[in-house]
Amino acid sequence: MIKDWLKIPSQYQLQTLSIIKIDDTIIPVSVIGKGRPVILLHAYGMDAREFLPFILPLTGKYRFYLPHFRGFGEAKSIHLTQFDFVRQYADDINTVIEQICHDLKIESLPVAAISMGAQVMWGYFERFGMSRVSRYMNIDQSPAIHNQADWQGGLFGERQQEVFDIFHEVVDMTLPYANVDSFTHLPFTIKRQVTDIERLFSLLSVNRTRSKAIVQLLTHQNDHKLVFYNHSTWQHKMRCLQAYLKLEYDFRAVIEKVTIPVVNLVGGRSTLYDSKWQQEVTRMLPNATEIVLPRSGHAVPMDEPIAFYKVLKEFVGNER
Fold it and tell me: Where is the signal peptide (predicted)?
């Protein structure tokens, strides 16, 4: 009787689906819920399971597929084989989408993606079109990373050069240690630089006071703790950062071809992607609606968790 009482209902049981690519690479996908399928794509440095607090109330009607990008979460031991990680992630997501559609015998399904995951979706649309995606929610992500003469909506906006210079310095410092097996074996100054840059990125991603306090708490590393800190994803993060700095990553040309319904969810106080330029993206899309959360920074789920849940619920509810 006790065992029956403690049994978790099937809709709340988290499973892992292993999707095998042609080269035998296994892409892990966390799956939860029952009902109509939805894909959610996570951000840089995020574990796909961090979506769980927002989707658990919806698992009675929807089955959520949460792919883990190479180097993060359940896929942290899976290495990139291409310098252009966005392209490789787009290839991986195409395999995931094709497998889900095949298994469920459906033509398409909705996708919501945040930050880096949304950047991957711009790359996906460019390479594979939109026939497999019925609706799309773009969460605070510009289609172009670098500022240009005709586009000032890139990463960090007006502060781009200042922040990129900091990133360049850290990436250059870590290059001689790219093959070091353990983070604990790095010189202390390198470890401090890497963790400080991660903290800076996280703090720039949030706006609300409570969010900043949480980031400060979670990312604080005193000297003693840092000496023994085993940072398993630092090399992968630096590699992605290096690609962001060197590659163009401009998908504006594909926007006018994305004719499916798009919800453009904008953090009104995002310091990563200026909201005015994000609203320009809405105007560029042929079939888009816009939702601006005026008090939110880039990390929308963290800054405005209730509002994010409501938007996500409406987005999946509009699927026919």
Answer: none
